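In this supplementary section we document a worked example of the pipeline. Step one takes a protein sequence of length 738 as its only input; no multiple sequence alignment statistics are reported here. Step two produces a three-dimensional model, which step three serialises into structure tokens for compact storage. The input and output of this example are shown verbatim.
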Amino acid sequence: MAKLYFLHNHSACLIAAVFLILNMGMRAIIADDEDRKVYIVYLGSLPQGEFSPLSEHHNILADVLEGSSPKDSLVRSYKRSFNGFAAKLTEKEREKLSNKDGVVSIFPSKLLHLKTTRSWDFMGLSETIERKPTVESDVIIGVLDTGIWPESESFGDEGFDPPPKKWKGVCSGGKNFTCNKKVIGARVYNSDNDSDDSARDIEGHGSHTASTAAGNKIKGVSFYGIAEGNARGGVPSARIAVYKVCFQSTCSDSDVLAAFDDAISDGVDIISVSLGALSAENLNENSLAIGSFHAMAKGILTLNSAGNEGPQIYSVESVAPWMVSVAASTTDREITTKVVLGDGTTLAGSSINTFVLNGTEFPLVYGKDTTRTCDELIARWCIEKCLERSLVEGKIILCRSITGDRVAHEAGAVGSILQEFDAPTIFPFPISTLNDEEFSRVESYYISTKNPQSNILKSESIKDASAPVVATFSSRGPNSIIPEILKPDVTAPGVNILAAYSPISPVTTEAKDKRLVKYSILSGTSMSCPHVAGIAAYIKTFHPDWSPSAIQSALITTAWPMNGTTSAYNDGELAFGAGHVDPVKAVNPGLVYEAFKADYITMMCNMGYDTKTVRLVSGDNSSCPQDTKGSPKDLNYPSMAVKVEAKKSFKVGFPRTVTNFGSANATYKAKVINTNSHIKVEVNPDIISFKEEKEKKSFVVIVVGKGLDSVEAPVAAASLVWSDGTHSVRSPIVAYAI
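The serialised model returned by step three reads:
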């Protein structure tokens, strides 16, 4: 028995030792994986003759890897134009590989950002692009927003000459606010609270939008090391005039109109307005439409954010045809926040997380398991007063709600994993938001694991090859006020935009969050709008005499064509209008669709406004026809839209006139791009010739359809492209029955 007893204990010791070794091995593998970094291994040109690069790359890795397979280590194989690969390696493996024959070089895969902002380079407006700095310095952008932080480096005036002679504004920014040769004017409008009489930005929004449009180039900017690069505006040499109309995130219509009134008279060239109502308003009851109409009449183009009420249809708020309505989309820089589960699974989430948790793993708990007072179905959403601190403190909590972060933080969680919101958000503690599929994977892991663990890593920037994609939050058309005017007009970068910020404004609204920064990352159509304002100013430096509608036309007709990311009808032209702005091509559009005050007045008559009203609006003797009435679709707009009755045949004509802004002798041929079987498009005439600049030619676009199904296929889209072999002048055509 004694012997048997001894053997029994000996076996137990052996088993325990085996488990200990296996456990140590697993920990070593996990640590090994954590020590791995991505390196690029450059092997030079492709060899001649029969050669399998992928096989060679696997063989090379097999010789140096310790504890990992070539398949798991290999990140990318370069095999079409040159020879090399990217792989996850430890420092020891990197050193071994660097000594192998045939390796030209091996170096870390760094994140390259040229940056804020990356958005300008993404659109093609690089730092080396052709500019006219002297003319650019005479361009003044008026920004209606929350003010500005004048001491920010983005608004320094080193190297600037005195303000342009045309400037008639003032610097009335209040106490301790000083303008300079960059920020040449400031006014404050606060009809609701006289105690705040300073143009100084205490919220960050106004500084962000102003620097996006016209900020100086500032090197080495980041948000706690995230999205690091050079911050610059679209027209760094331009001047900024500040009109503070918003306080505590709200803006009074009366203040907005007062700012328009001043800005027009002050002599600004472009107006950027990143604000709006929660829904579209009639033109005559819309302070932005009214103010921008009068700006247009004085030769000033207004750019306006489309709204953040998407993806619902009819949610676009910026509807007036004399304003450019800007949607928001992504750039090729994506910010991701990884979630690492206890079983080694790594999931790429979305948020802007600056924190590094003090530890490799933390207990994971579901909101539904942290309550003694709420129903489980409610508690899984981390609703207020549901979470028990004793069950949450020191743990990472899983919440089905994007709004569960504040409750989780107050309950003592060290971090939280939430369901996804498409625009990464800054949170006051470690958070990653996952899409439905990956969130379900965490749920499955949590349910199947006795002691679930997780970690949330600091955010990092990666390349997004799918960009540009319209953000879910970006407001969609159709235009609820003027159904025949397609809105939004275009889309521009509005997700993860790094720009100047107020250094006294916390980066989140939570009182416990004491982080203060000079540059922050924001998302919204508020961010896309100043991008297009900067582009409009850039165009104006090449063409100072262009009308607002000519600049607007150039923006629309040269935009990048885009495709919806889903089959949903609210994910195409109703989301992005003509497409993504192209600042380089917009300088030389070839043809433009111009409209002036009289044309807009005619459109208003066609909408039902009477002579008395339009005369008040125009300030002249304009009159509405008594006998004949046209349609708003007849406005000489660069895009074409029509609302039709469901399941009924239709035939619609769009009369248009283009002005030759290209070569004196040019012939343009019409091409219709139409993959939709529900409509047919004809152009008459389909060839137009010009003999001189500024010459005008007219044509009619005829759209015929057998009827659109308001449920199955409510939207049919095509496009008209006029081309002379050099220019491509593209107009979207949309018929809808929704």
